[in-house]
Amino acid sequence: AQSVTQLDSHVSVSEGTPVLLRCNYSSSYSPSLFWYVQHPNKGLQLLLKYTSAATLVKGINGFEAEFKKSETSFHLTKPSAHMSDAAEYFCTSGTYKYIFGTGTRLKVLA
Amino acid sequence: DGGITQSPKYLFRKEGQNVTLSCEQNLNHDAMYWYRQDPGQGLRLIYYSQIVNDFQKGDIAEGYSVSREKKESFPLTVTSAQKNPTAFYLCASSKTGNSPLHFGNGTRLTVT
Fold first, then answer.
1. Cβ of B13 under 8 Å from any chain A Cβ?
2. Quick check: A44 contacting B, CB < 8 Å?
3. Which H or E run includes A78?
4. Model pLDDT, residue A103
């Protein structure tokens, strides 16, 4: 069965420092992988999607993620955090029955 | 602009009453979904529909029902059989089964 594990429920970083949000997946085949962001009381917005075309995927707002098949990981990174990045982030995988991780709440300290 | 509209934003009901949440999309997407979000549990799939007049149960379908009579619309009914209906409900759509999901802004349902 497919599963998605977000390894940290909360991450705190200082403004201007790098962000790393970790996601591992399990799948018997090459999955579709996505990262979404959710601001309070809002729906989710797509940050980026993995396609088999490239292992390093660039998304919106300076985020990117690297697909590592050997590690079954799809970690989300950003070189320099901004206050507006504070939100909850979800990693997801699947086809129709998308499986969501439990989310990582990112806090950005001034 | 195309998008997904969920209404209402907040909904209050008494225990024992059925309630229907609205979801409309103008993205011309074939697939639509309903998720339930509870703190610390991520999103859990209630129902999804790949095409008009067809839908499948997700992981937590008990106590919920849906219909898909039109491509644009996928209403969710929370029945009195749902034991813990208070939650944030999110509707989404996608062009195909492995396309990105487009989400509405959610309906927060409170049942007392």
1. no
2. yes
3. strand A73-78
4. 95
